[in-house]
Amino acid sequence: MPDQPLPVIAVLATGGTIAGAQADATSAGYKAGSFSVGDLLAAVPQLAGLADIRAEQVANVGSQNMTHDVWRALAQRVDALCADASVAGIVITHGTDTLEETAYFLSLVIRHDKPVVLVGAMRPATALGAEGPANLYNAVALARHPDARGRGPLVVMNEDVHYAREIQKIASAGINAFASPNRGRAGVMHGGAPYFYSRNTTTHTTQSEFSLALLEKSGWPRVDIVYAHANLQADVIAFIAGQADGIVLAGVGDGNATDLAVDALTRAAADGVAVVRSSRTGSGFVARDVELDDAALGFAAARDLNPQKARILLMLALCVTREPAAVQRYFDRY
Ligand code: SIN
């Protein structure tokens, strides 16, 4: 009997530590985005038994330099590859610093149910014990697996599988740097196969009402994050409110801030800047009209979405509405 052809998996590379090089294999410093997608694939010859790989270099940056321009290019490529019936799944290699943001962004603007898997590494490619090759192997194995379909973009790191909305980088070093603190990881990779523990019950991809076209039409509304701390002053908020369409407060505790800051945010909201309260704590829930009277102040609450993802959802919501109650409805559903 003739061999079954291997599934086609597109690998889109964007850089990051997974493509990083050090001066020597034990040094802490390195340059992210040093190796090309061809180099990454060559380090994992086992991929030849898993998939027919089509590789593309979309960018080669440390993900601290991730931009909306790269997101646009990525979303366009993912969209085209999802529409290509010959492609079974898509893997995106990415720096870990903003990987969760790219994953969440794609989950809101890609209107397909084909597997899209993001992957990175905490150790550069030249390090002793680099985990990038194993992560990449797992990412391709996940992207070709039928169980990965319909879950929105997934992230695989250190044998854990996470949903785009839930994953968060929780440590600046170490291979166990990712978690899904509020709802838990989606599953695990074991022996090159995924085992899912939960369904993704949030709104994404095929149910999302957002798109790249909507963002382009609206000129990508500008949303900035204000990080709350003791003694936070009003002037920094007034300055940001002068430039931004929306502000996400990375608030203390339940999304709160000094009276001075809350007053400044209230003035910003009255001037038409959308304000969403979230928490800087890393997990938990910020409910509307609990810690503050959001309805009266003109704010929305991010619920269990972290500040950096609330920024993305607010940017998309602002393509449709600036009205706080309507913005809140997006945060209630996505
Ligand atoms: C980056 O995000 O590009 C640098 C850090 C990493 O990938 O781990």
Radius of gyration: 20 Å
Task: Name the helicity range.
Answer: 25-40%
Strand order of the largest sheet: 2-1-3-4-5-6-9-10
H/E series: EHEHEHEHEEEEEEHEHEHEHEHH
Backbone structural class: alpha/beta
Beta-strand portion reads 15-25%
CATH C-level category of the largest domain: Alpha Beta
Instruction: Output the CATH homologous superfamily of the largest domain.
Output: L-asparaginase, N-terminal domain
> In the CATH hierarchy, what is the architecture of the largest domain at level 2?
3-Layer(aba) Sandwich
Terminal CA distance reads: 47 Å
Q: How is the CATH topology of the largest domain named?
A: Rossmann fold
Give your account of this protein's structure:
The chain is an alpha/beta fold and 334 residues long. The chain has two domains: 8-205, Rossmann fold (3-Layer(aba) Sandwich); 218-333, Rossmann fold (3-Layer(aba) Sandwich), CATH 3.40.50.40. It has ten helices and 14 strands. The strands form three sheets. Strands 2-1-3-4-5-6-9-10 form an eight-stranded mixed beta sheet, with helices on both faces. A four-stranded parallel beta sheet has the order 11-12-13-14, sandwiched between helices. α3 packs parallel to α9 and α6 packs parallel to α7. The radius of gyration is 20 Å and the shape is globular. Residues 16-17, 32, 62-64, 95-97, 120, 122 line the site of succinic acid (SIN).
